[in-house]
Amino acid sequence: MFNFPFQQDTPQQAPQASSETRHTTSAPLPWKTAASPQDDAEKRLAAMEQDEPKRRLIRDAKALCKLRKITQATMAEEIGIPRRTLEEWLQFRRMPKAPGVTLIRRWVANYKQKLITCFKKTAIFSIN
């Protein structure tokens, strides 16, 4: 059946892995190191600092909405986004990404200018 003789006196062994193919890492694995509370606090602080301009913009939008005496649904319709999305942004549950920030910034700039013009006109009429 086989054309060659079997060697029965040699033991079978698995090939040895060379030291060149082994991966050694000098840094400990992430799940083996415990992050210190200070590192976590620094990460949270950095994330909050990154979101601060968005927070200011959202606060301005909320104030402008209150001055105009409009609902969140009306504001969302004017901006062109779903009401639920705007609600989550205004309650700081989620932060808007770049397109959302642009939409809010344009809305605030547009109605801020209209309110300033309106206040100037009413101030002129009340003085005379």
Automatic annotation (TrEMBL):
Top-level lineage group: Bacteria
Signal peptide: none
Compositionally biased intervals (Polar residues): 1-27
InterPro entries: Cro/C1-type_HTH (IPR001387), Lambda_DNA-bd_dom_sf (IPR010982)
Stretch list, region Disordered: 1-42
GO molecular function: DNA binding
Record protein name field: HTH cro/C1-type domain-containing protein
Organism: Vreelandella sulfidaeris
